[in-house]
Amino acid sequence: MYGYIKGKITDIEASYVILENNNIGYQIYVPNPYGFMMEREYTIYTYTKVAEDEYTLYGFKTKEEKELFQKLILVKGIGCKTAIGILATGEIDAIIDAIEGKNIAYLKKIPGIGPKAAQQIILDLHGKFDKHAMKPLGSPDYEEATEVLIALGYKQNDVEKAMKVLSSENLDTNGYVKRALALLTQ
């Protein structure tokens, strides 16, 4: 229902954050609530679960996290809460590599995933990932620099292209911003 919501984090709890947008506080369940900072602006990509007795928002810092979540909930026996738990490991590439490499041992290390669930994830999702479309989750500095550039008014597509060029470099937030600005102003 909602693709994303932009707003300010006003509350952080163990399993969700409150994102305020136009004086409305949205309770959004996220993989790592403590990865957000109070009173900061964020764009949270959302998935809305609507059931007979439930209307729940799940949120993600990146489109790639959301895409992986949506694939995981299609797996037999994996619901939204389990999928959020899987993403809470924070390593999207590692999860995808485990699925593509049929690494049951890695998946079983994730809390709530036993041998049967790990096998089902591999059975249902193996071969379903376009490695070029799924971008790696960068360091916190990389992610923060991306948010800064978007906040400065640059188009998200342009920022993603510039940051992709810098993805192999290990810089701090300011370093990423300076280098990306140089690329964006060429």
Model description:
42% of the residues lie in helices and 21% in strands. With 186 residues, the protein is of the alpha+beta class. Strands 1-2-3-5-4 form a five-stranded mixed barrel. Strand 2 and strand 3 (24-29) form a beta hairpin. The protein is globular, with a radius of gyration of 17 Å.
Tell me about the biggest sheet? 5 strands, mixed, barrel
The computed structural class is alpha+beta
Kindly provide the radius of gyration, computed on alpha-carbon positions and rounded to a whole number of angstroms. 17 Å
Residue ranges: pLDDT <50 for 5 or more in a row? 132-137
Q: What proportion of the residues form beta strands (DSSP E)?
A: 15-25%
Describe the strand arrangement of the main beta sheet, using strand numbers. Answer: 1-2-3-5-4
Q: Give the terminus-to-terminus CA distance.
A: 38 Å
Number of helices: 8
Q: What is the number of E strands? A: 5
Keywords:
single chain, 186 residues, alpha+beta, five-stranded mixed beta barrel, globular
The gist of it:
This protein has eight helices and five strands; from the N terminus they run E-E-E-E-E-H-H-H-H-H-H-H-H. It is α+β, with helices and mostly antiparallel strands. The protein has a five-stranded mixed beta barrel with strand order 1-2-3-5-4.
